[in-house]
């Protein structure tokens, strides 16, 4: 699958139970904080206009913005829209686009404006990358894709009169997830690290979630030094959902690279938000820190042990016990 098609729409207007989300997360280049934006479709074919009619947070189209300041607590702003104003590319079509109420996202750019509870957030962004990947793809059940894994962002964000502007503005990822339902338990992290030699970004992404019969999906990808490393064997060392800390060892095939990841999402930037289930029965809590820290210890045959670290260039998310 090409990098550009990783953003292509999957949901059909007739689907009664499905979420699909395009999202961006990046650390500001000056280190002062991180932003997380989400463009969400939910249950487009459900009677009553889609979404979860009558439920709080149940609009079929939603745009989210969360600010993670270096000093202080995260702030989230969510605005819902009816489908009547939705402009969306056809399933599988390229180039991809979504637009609703002045908010839009495409293959390499996005914009938005939210007015929520007396706060105003607006943005006009572009992003570029050298890597697009698929972490998980289980057909109609769901997928997790990262069309821009080592993304460099430029443009402008305005939040209650405060302006963030830069060329570049920040570093992170643009992702695209879809599913019949959310998993009951998952761990996910993405790290974007600026190389000290000025040679671009290294990125690391890992995903784990529960499967039927007690099985688990696990996969990690490291893009470093112009090479992509794939890890499928995991040994969990520590998982602390209360403090959003995840430590694990992962390896590739025999004789290849090994990596120990220490992800730390504790502290004041730890943020908890309710997500509505696609069956509309209830919601569940998602713990996220988009201003987290990471240390990666990389071992490769023929190379000395290498340590890659970042303070703030990480997003980590956990759900379930």
Please describe the topology of this protein.
Blueprint: E1 19-28, E2 33-42, E3 61-69, E4 75-81, E5 87-88, E6 97-100, E7 103-106, E8 109-116, E9 119-128, E10 133-137, E11 142-159, E12 162-179, E13 186-194, E14 201-210, E15 216-224, E16 227-231, E17 233-240, E18 245-251, E19 258-264, E20 271-276, E21 283-299, E22 306-319
Antiparallel strand pairs: 1-2, 1-12, 2-3, 3-4, 5-6, 6-7, 7-8, 8-9, 9-11, 10-11, 11-12, 13-14, 13-22, 14-15, 15-16, 17-18, 18-19, 19-21, 20-21, 21-22
Portion in beta strands? over 45%
Separation of the first and last Cα atoms:
34 Å
Largest pleated sheet: 12 strands, antiparallel
Q: Class by helix and strand content? A: mainly beta
Description of the structure:
By secondary structure, this protein is mainly beta. It has one domain (4-319). 0% of the residues lie in helices and 61% in strands. It has strands spanning 19-28, 33-42, 61-69, 75-81, 87-88, 97-100, 103-106, 109-116, 119-128, 133-137, 142-159, 162-179, 186-194, 201-210, 216-224, 227-231, 233-240, 245-251, 258-264, 271-276, 283-299, 306-319. Strands 1, 2, 3, 4, 5, 6, 7, 8, 9, 10, 11 and 12 form a 12-stranded antiparallel β-sheet that branches. β6 and β7 form a beta hairpin. The two termini are 34 Å apart. The mean pLDDT is 95.
């Amino acid at each position: 699958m090409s990098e550009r098609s990783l953003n292509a729409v999957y949901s059909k207007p007739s689907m009664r139970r499905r979420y699909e989300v395009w999202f961006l997360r990046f650390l500001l280049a000056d280190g002062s904080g991180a932003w997380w934006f989400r463009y969400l479709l939910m249950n487009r074919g459900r009677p009553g206009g889609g979404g979860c009619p009558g439920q709080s947070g149940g609009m079929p189209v939603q745009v989210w913005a969360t600010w993670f300041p270096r000093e202080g607590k995260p702030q989230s702003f969510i605005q819902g829209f009816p489908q009547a104003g939705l402009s969306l590319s056809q399933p599988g079509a390229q180039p991809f686009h979504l637009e609703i109420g002045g908010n839009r996202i495409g293959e390499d750019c996005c914009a938005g404006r939210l007015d929520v509870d007396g706060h105003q957030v607006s943005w006009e962004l572009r992003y570029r990358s050298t890597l697009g990947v698929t972490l998980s793809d289980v057909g109609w059940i769901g997928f997790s894709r990262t069309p821009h894994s080592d993304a460099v962002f430029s443009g402008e964000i305005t939040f209650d009169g405060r302006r963030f502007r830069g060329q570049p503005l920040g570093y992170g990822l643009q992702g695209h997830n879809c599913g019949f339902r959310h998993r009951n338990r998952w761990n996910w992290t993405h790290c974007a690290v600026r190389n000290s030699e000025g040679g671009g970004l290294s990125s690391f992404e890992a995903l784990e979630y529960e499967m039927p019969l007690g099985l688990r999906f696990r996969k990690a990808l490291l893009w470093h030094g112009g090479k992509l490393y794939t890890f499928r064997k995991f040994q969990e060392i520590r998982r602390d959902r209360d403090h959003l800390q995840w430590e694990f060892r992962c390896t590739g095939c025999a004789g290849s690279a090994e990596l120990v990841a220490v992800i730390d999402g504790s502290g004041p930037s730890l943020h908890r938000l309710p997500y509505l289930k696609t069956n509309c029965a209830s919601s569940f809590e998602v713990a996220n820190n988009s201003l987290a820290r990471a240390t990666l210890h990389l071992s490769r045959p023929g190379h000395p042990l290498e340590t890659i670290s970042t303070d703030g260039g990480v997003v980590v998310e956990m759900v379930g016990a």
